């Protein structure tokens, strides 16, 4: 089943936020695992309040643990149902990183794709070798941008490289949107990719991370949660019309 890479050119644009919420929302459509592929600066487990994970992806890559042992199961409310999000954290020492074998990583991703309906890879920013390895093992890449020129410029490189690697670009995700309507209209044209989602700026995001829970579960009725669920529906193939909306009243807690 599809392996989805969440990528970006610039750092800090919201890949981990999108990955965790997208994966949480996809549990409504099928068994889903989210994998921290930000090997240098992993923090998915921190946002999801998985304290001191004993085993991580690197133990699996070294052959010291099975995938099952390094998978954490988080029960959460998604819509009206209780689902389970599977999470594989990544904690690597420098020596482990030196041992990193691309082929072994590919095998692990392959095994995950045979086990789960959706595999979401939270890829590190930019085009380092490790970012390329993660992206290159995906079937489809989504590129997260913020409404800033520099973010879109670097995203353009990522889109080009993804295509060169033979990875389909599923679309662009405009995050931290505050009503820049003309920007939203342009971004898919500049990146020559579909607009897969527009996620508004919301204080609920940092509040939800303080609570260690994806916002779609923490504040399911908030507007930003609706944006994220719409993105997940698009990724799951249920066409949702993504249109730029006007000024976002995020200051009112939307
Ligand atoms: N839609 C949003 N509204 C408000 N804050 C947001 C939104 N999306 C992300 N943030 C905040 O932006 C910061 C960076 O988000 P996140 O860690 O998801 O980015 P990232 O792309 O994974 O960063 P890195 O490149 O360092 O891995 C976090 O503090 C997060 O709470
Ligand atoms: Mg991140």
Automatic annotation (TrEMBL):
Residues 4-214 form the CobQ/CobB/MinD/ParA nucleotide binding domain. GO terms for molecular function: ATP binding; ATP hydrolysis activity. One of its GO terms (biological process) is negative regulation of cell division. GO terms for cellular component: cytoplasmic side of plasma membrane; cytosol. Coiled coil: none annotated. InterPro entries: CobQ/CobB/MinD/ParA_Nub-bd_dom (IPR002586), P-loop_NTPase (IPR027417), ParA/MinD_ATPase (IPR050625). It comes from the Archaea. It holds the Pfam family CbiA. This is ATPases involved in chromosome partitioning.
């Amino acid at each position: 089943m599809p392996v989805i890479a969440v990528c970006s050119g610039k750092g800090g644009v919201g890949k981990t936020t999108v990955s965790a919420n997208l994966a949480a929302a996809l549990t409504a459509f099928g068994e889903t695992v989210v994998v921290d592929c930000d090997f240098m600066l992993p923090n998915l487990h921190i946002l999801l309040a998985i304290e001191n994970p004993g085993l991580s992806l690197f133990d699996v890559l070294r052959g010291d643990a099975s995938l099952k042992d390094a998978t954490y199961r988080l029960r959460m409310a998604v819509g009206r149902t209780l689902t389970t999000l599977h999470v594989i954290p990544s904690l690597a020492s420098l020596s482990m990183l030196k041992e990193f074998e691309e082929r072994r990583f590919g095998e692990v991703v392959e095994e995950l794709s045979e086990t789960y309906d959706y595999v979401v890879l939270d890829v590190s920013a930019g085009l380092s070798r490790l970012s390329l390895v993660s992206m290159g093992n995906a079937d489809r890449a989504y590129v997260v941008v913020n409404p800033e020129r520099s973010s879109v410029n670097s995203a353009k490189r990522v889109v080009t490289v993804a295509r060169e690697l033979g990875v389909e670009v599923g679309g662009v995700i405009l995050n931290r949107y505050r009503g820049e309507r003309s920007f939203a209209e342009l971004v898919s044209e500049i990146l020559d990719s579909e607009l897969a989602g527009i996620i508004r700026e919301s204080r609920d995001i940092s509040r939800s991370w303080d609570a260690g829970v994806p916002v779609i579960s923490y504040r399911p009725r908030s507007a930003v949660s609706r944006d994220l669920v719409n993105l997940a529906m698009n990724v799951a193939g249920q066409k949702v019309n993504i249109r730029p909306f006007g000024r976002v009243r995020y200051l009112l807690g939307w």
